[in-house]
Amino acid sequence: MKQTAIQLNQVTKTYKGGIQGLQCANLEIPYNQCVGIIGANGAGKTTLIHLIAGVLRPSSGSVKKTICKPNDLAWVSQTQTIDWFLSVFDNVRLGARLGGASISDSYEVSYEMLEEVGLLSKKMLLPDQLSGGEIRRVQIARALAQKAKILLLDEPTVGLDPVASERFIDKITQTVSEETVVLIASHDLHILEKSVSSVLYLNEGHIEAFQTKEEFLKNFSSHTLREAFFAAHN
Fold first, then answer.
1. What pLDDT, on a 0 to 100 scale, did the predictor assign at position 227?
2. Which residue among 1, 115, 195, 210 is least packed, with the fewest CB closer than 10 Å?
3. pLDDT of 226 over the 80 cut
4. Fold for domain 1-67+149-159+179-234?
């Protein structure tokens, strides 16, 4: 039986003005999963990620994570969360050090991750010398360098070109093991098709389904999929 990584018990998040971000969510996600979180804008994807990351508190209910220390969780947000005064290399090395890597190992890990995201040649630049897509790749490299047990990714391929997205997806697939779980909130069809093992479908703050990819594609119509992925762009 797989160990539970994340558990939500009757979790509700209500914002000012009575706006419901998440409603009475019950969820149990085991390790050894790559979970795609899908749904239209406003469905609750980012709220769920923020609750699991601990940057939001639930209005009611509880969120539990089976980790030994805070650094066992890494998070890539939609916004540009980066240290603007550190070089690209040192930003990634910070992630490795937060994950517990020794000084010498942090250098090796950082070189490896920057090569994976195609930014090794720009390792000494400051973030403000990069494009938006490149900054996104630095964020991804830093999160991967942390080698956390729980990895949360909120729209990680936004701003990435198709080649960078493909490289990223392949790398994420390789990180999943019996001791790790990856959650990806995305509108990118390639994320669903190529990397996830399970799909968590949110609709207006409700969890409509949490199933294996195969079960989800079998049980939900193509109309539902189009709505889940593309409503934000209409």
1. 60
2. 1
3. no
4. Rossmann fold (3.40.50)
Distance CA 220, CA 231 (A): 16
The string of pLDDT tens digits covering residues 57-83 is 999 999 999 998 888 999 998 888 899
Compute the radius of gyration of the chain from its Cα atoms. 17
Domain extents in the chain? 1-67+149-159+179-234
pLDDT tier for residue 229 given thresholds of 50, 70 and 90: low
β-strand partners of 201: 38, 209
186-222: per-residue pLDDT in tens?
Answer: 877 666 777 899 999 999 999 999 999 888 888 876 5
- Contact partners, residue 131, CB within 8 Å, separation at least 6: 159
Return the pLDDT at 84. Answer: 94
AA letter at 211: Q
State how far the Cα of 67 lies from the Cα of 223, in Å rounded to an integer.
38
How far apart, in whole angstroms, are the C-alpha atoms of residue 131 and residue 158?
A: 12
Which residue type occupies 168?
F
Q: Is the dihedral of CA 113, 118, 121, 122 positive or negative?
A: negative
**Biggest CA pair distance of the chain:** 51
> b vs e for 70-93, b when ≥16 Cβ sit within 10 Å of the residue's Cβ?
ebbbbbbbeeeebeeeebbbbbbb
173 with 35: CB under 8 angstroms?
no
Contact 49, 75 (CB under 8 A): yes
